[in-house]
Description:
333 residues; 20 strands; 1% helix
Amino acid sequence: MDVPVNELPWQGEFPDVANWSENFCLAGYDPECGVGFWFHIGRWRHDKTMWREIVVMRFPDGTVAAHRAIGNARASTEGGGGPCFSVRVLESGRRLHYSFNGGVMRVSAATMLEGIVGDGRKTPFTFELDFVSDSDIWDLHKVGSLQAFLPAGHIEQPGQLTGAIRIGDDHYDFNAIVNRDHSLGARDNKDLHSHQWLQGYFENGIKFMLFDAKTKSDGKVVFSEAIVYEGDRAFEAKIESIERCERVEDDEKPIRITLSYANGTLDIDTVAYHGSSYLSLTSPNDQYVGVYKSDPGPTLVLDEQSVTLTLNGTVAGYGAYERTIPGFHKPEA
């Protein structure tokens, strides 16, 4: 299916394609306020008129707001919306708004490794966040047919995110560069061994984003894509070397990434991790907050992290990492 680069939610009859999905995602970290997050809202595969929202936010005290719900109360022709969370496209390719109003579980990161986060005493949680960007959009359509777990139509863009966050009695003002995406197409993650979706932003105006994935059945890297920005201008890049995480116990070990592009080579080092949060995938296409138990284990883990970085040994930066760590992958009927 030829999927256009379209900012707004799908309108009309849904494609008759197995495991077809539509997703909006936003990930970032502000080293000043100490808050990192991962927002993901996608069409629920059992009823595509509804949206499955996942909001995970990491706080400086080590706690995590961990939320998953299904519905369409806040859905609109201008963006996806579930019971509490919404995305609005205010200006295609340039401005979006992200909003949440509800109650969430506030748990430790370690608790998320012990099982799926269930219900219990909730904490009031709200945010209103504005995304603005003049940066080129990264179009990943060219790799959509190389695997089954990344939808055929996939765009990403870095931009400035600003706004207010409140959880219980704690208030934070967020102001940092983040990365957003919008994807359309079939998604089936059953053959996913591991992947890395990493982003970083540096004081000299250099930014990078990369997506690297490996399949389980043959152990091959099915795609390995990267892009480098100088200011708002994008340059195709090559991943020269990257370190994968094979055990969750090692997920806060420093790693180095080397990228090359038209204007040089970038050696990117992880200086420190500032919070991790843990989720699960089930096949063909669903996600849960927390990690389900498996016997004998370990379970495949979707790991979202806040990081600080250095570029070529001297330039300070920050970013967000997403990695799947190999393990048992649960099928879901």
